[in-house]
Amino acid sequence: MVKTKSKAMNKHEAKQLAETVTLDNLKAMFHNAKQNITDWARISRVNKGATIGTTYNILAFEPDRYASIDEIHIIARKNMIWEFGEYLPDYEKAVAKTKTGQTTVVHQEPKFKL
To answer: I want to staple 85 with a disulfide (CB 3.0 to 4.6 A). Which of 9, 19, 20, 72 is the partner?
Structure first.
């Protein structure tokens, strides 16, 4: 399967990664996001009523706040990764192959009975 850098993390993938992510990976993810995001006014994926700047302020944490990944609730980890997961170290999203053949469209004229 071909892999490439992705610009968006989906909710299902974020949930799977939240179960195995480490505390150091989350710290690096927030650091990378802080360095690479230029449009902080974009609408958040996690909360459509907030920008990613607001979401960052809510979800990002001080580097020494947690001693273990178990101190961060799984839902919080999922939301962190869903919003900023593309900035995880060594993250590459698998891209599904698309069909290359032509699809034959079937059309029939409607038969009006009234």
So the answer is: 9
